[in-house]
């Protein structure tokens, strides 16, 4: 029994060492993926008329990761919310749509917040393109209804 305890303790320490070694590698990858820049954007308009209530952007970093980001002009009020959607065209995930609420995103824009982003998608193939869609919703008592939508151009 004592031998089993020593083996498990040693395995636990080895596992912790492996995790500690993996963390700097992940941090180095994240640091080398800087250079995030907006490659396409569109204003958030209600009824397709100014003024703009925010911006939807398609973003790319130096590691060929793409994501959608919505930023509202001011904090969202209690009966409103907004969300960004990343649409993929081409590749094995053609037609895939990810939102801020998808795993890896940071959640839809809710009361008191101004922005959210979708999960990042890595795409190195030149045949894959993306578009970002932004939607704003209000709840007038009967559930959330879409009140505005706009999309970026489809690009790589």
What would your notes on this structure say?
By secondary structure, the protein is an alpha+beta fold. It is 20% helix and 43% strand. It is built from 1 helix and 9 strands, in the order αβββββββββ. The protein has one helix spanning 2-32, and strands spanning 37-46, 49-60, 65-72, 80-89, 97-99, 115-117, 121-122, 129-139, 144-151. Strands 1, 2, 3, 6 and 7 form a 5-stranded antiparallel β-sheet that branches. Strands 5-4-8-9 form a 4-stranded antiparallel β-sheet, with no helix packed on it. A hairpin with a 2-residue loop joins strand 1 (37-46) and strand 2. It is elongated, with a radius of gyration of 21 Å. Mean pLDDT is 85; it is low at 1-28.
Nearest-integer average pLDDT: 85
Any idea what the radius of gyration is?
21 Å
Instruction: Classify the beta-strand content into a percent band.
Output: 35-45%
Kindly state the number of beta strands.
Answer: 9
Q: Characterize the overall form.
A: elongated
Short description:
The chain is an alpha+beta fold and 156 residues long. It has one helix and nine strands; from the N terminus they run H-E-E-E-E-E-E-E-E-E. Helices cover 20% and strands 43% of the residues.
List the helices and strands and how they pair.
Blueprint: H1 2-32, E1 37-46, E2 49-60, E3 65-72, E4 80-89, E5 97-99, E6 115-117, E7 121-122, E8 129-139, E9 144-151
Antiparallel strand pairs: 1-2, 2-3, 3-6, 3-7, 4-5, 4-8, 8-9
Entry keywords:
156 residues, alpha+beta, five-stranded antiparallel beta sheet, four-stranded antiparallel beta sheet, 43% strand, elongated, disordered N terminus
């Amino acid at each position: 029994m004592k031998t089993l305890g020593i083996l498990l303790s040693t395995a636990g320490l080895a596992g912790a060492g492996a995790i500690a070694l993996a963390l700097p590698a992940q941090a180095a990858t994240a640091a080398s993926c800087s250079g995030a820049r907006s490659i396409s954007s569109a204003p958030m308009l209600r009824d397709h008329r100014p003024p703009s209530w925010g911006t939807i952007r398609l973003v790319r970093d130096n590691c060929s990761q793409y994501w959608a980001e919505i930023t509202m002009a001011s904090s969202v009020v209690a009966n409103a919310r907004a969300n960004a959607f990343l649409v993929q065209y081409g590749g094995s995930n053609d037609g895939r749509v990810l939102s801020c609420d998808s795993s890896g995103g940071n959640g839809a824009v809710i009361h008191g917040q101004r922005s959210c982003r979708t999960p990042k998608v890595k795409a190195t193939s030149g045949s894959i393109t993306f578009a970002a869609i932004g939607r704003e919703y209000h709840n007038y008592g009967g559930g959330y209804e879409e009140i505005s939508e706009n999309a970026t151009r489809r690009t790589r």
